[in-house]
Amino acid sequence: MILRPRQRQFVDRCVRTLRAKRSCLAVAPTAAGKTIMLSHIAREFRGSGVVLQHLIQLIDQNRAKFQKCYPEASIGVVNAESKASVCGPDGWTFAMVQTLVRNPDLICGWDLIIIDECHHAGAETYKKLIEAVRRLNPDVMVLGVSATPNRGDGKALRDVFSQCADVISVAELIRSGNLVPPRTFVRSLDGVADGVRDLREHGDDYDMSEADALMNTRSNNERVVEEWEKLCPDRKTIVFGCTVAHAAALCEAWVRRGYVADLVHGELPMRERQERMERFARGDTQVMTNCAVLTEGYDDQTVSCVCLGRPSSRKGTVIQMIGRGLRTVDPELHPGVVKTDCYVLDFGESLKAIRSLEQGVNLDGREISEEERNGDDLKVCPGCFAEVVRFASECPFCGYLFEGAVTVEEITDFVMQEISLVEASPFKWQKIFGDLVTMAAGFNAWSVVLRYNDLWFCVGGGRFAMATALAVSPIKFMALAAGDEWMHEHETDDTARKSKRWIYEPMTDKQAAVLGVTDRFAAMQYNKYMASCLILWDRNEDVIKRVVSRAAQAKQAEQGPVALIAAPEGYAECSLREMRS
Question: Looking at domain 182-357, which of 3.40.605.10, 3.50.7.10, 3.40.50.300, 1.20.1560.10 is its CATH number?
């Protein structure tokens, strides 16, 4: 697996800072590839370590990704069901922090502590655990990663982490095609704009009982559904309520309007909650209301609308809620679902207050220069005196806004994004048959981007992977991003071809024979790489068409008629040799 350039930079910065300072935090939003980057950081040290998680459902999925990227690692799990703590070279333990603190005999003298969702690290349980490891190994390093490190309760993280090593922004992930852009709509309800200003703070956010009294009226709940109905009545939606009673009332409001809606909350028995979530995942339920259940650790790629039915004074909470709808869709997992953005409907005045969806770099449209992005210089936050990377516009420790921080802006320049992606990719994206087909080929994998009528389809395959649909989108850039991600996953630095001089040499006699090109002058128009792409296309044309047809048929069944083949291009009816002639 090849790290994306930005992931490689993140890993290098964290490793460098850990070696110099022994502790640091770093910001990595949803879809940054956090577990993949953490596994590469772990491999750099080749010692032992522990990955601390606060949600039990995250352990299995993160452990599997970690093992794939770090196959030499011996991995144990510490939670309610398992007490397998591992130490020694390449020994890694995935653990619930509460379980470790209750079982001190399982604590080892690990070389590196990684704290996932490290905004929780200000709690006494984390500090107690770090001190216990430090007594066994005074040289232990501590790395914290979170999409939202700022704590709403004001507890500082500076006594846990000495420095901010890096900040990956939401804007970067949207520009790279790893997240869909949010489209934000603020809708005021009766008395809410003025009432929110008078809400008391309780813990790390507004007092939700007061917020319920302000927002949970029949007229307000009906208005939420009406505004949603005007904007996006066909979208799969998550709704956040102030309290269980408010979430239930919102659910009832959707049901009264004839929609299939359901409710989940922490007081439900686990089995019943799981059944409701499964119905939502299958698409049997269109709208899921909740109270404090889906904020962290829940991901459904098909969610394309998030309703903020509650106010929040905590920026991190708002970002976490919105993040539930920003993931891109894998068409193999969700055939027929096309998703290019996420609607965010704010009924609690939160977006006006937070001003930005970033914890470090704003969605302000400002291009960060290479000098800024690559520079190692740090700056000191006036708010808490922490060292942060110099391009950050907000301190990840205390939330201090540096000069120049501005408001959220949509990112829609997909043409420039496509050019940037192709230029930055370690793989050469070759156009064949004009703009109809774009292809990347490696030693282990290949990826093809095709246009059928108004949609772009991406198909990936290779020596060790069957051809599969990777993306369906009306925007070519999103399909290219999915294909480039496939290549990164299946190729290595040694097999990435773009920088290899030989690929630009004239095609070989053997390639010419396979392609049926007998004229010497015609052969000079092909280089080795283009010939390789054409041969791959010729050998996989039928299976690519079958995969695309299945994806198109699934889309037709899900969202209405779509022409499977762009007839004017003549693509489906002719073979490679007919196209060349």
Answer: 3.40.50.300
What residues contact 420, with CB distance under 8 A and at least 6 apart?
175
**Residue matched to tokens 């050998």:** 539
State pLDDT tens for residues 137-173.
999 999 999 887 765 544 567 778 888 898 888 878 8
Which pair of tokens denotes residue 292? 């404090």
Q: For the stretch 178-199, what's the b/e string if a residue is b when 16 or more beta carbons lie within 10 angstroms of its beta carbon?
A: bbbbbbbbebebeebeebbeeb
The pLDDT tens digits for 246-296 are: 999 999 999 999 999 999 998 999 899 999 999 999 999 999 999 989 987
How many other CB atoms are there within 10 angstroms of residue 389's CB atom? 24
Place of tokens 């889309």: 555
Helix ranges (H only) for 283-412 are 315-323, 350-354, 370-374
Cα torsion 119, 392, 357, 149 to 10°: value is 0
Instruction: Report d(CA 522, CA 512) in Å as an integer.
Output: 10
Q: CATH 3.40.50.300 in the chain, residues?
A: 5-169, 182-357
Q: What are phi and psi of 50, to 5 degrees?
A: -135, 135
Domain 5-169 fold? Rossmann fold (3.40.50)
CB 451 within 8 A of CB 566: yes
How far does Cα 436 stand from its chain's mean position?
A: 29
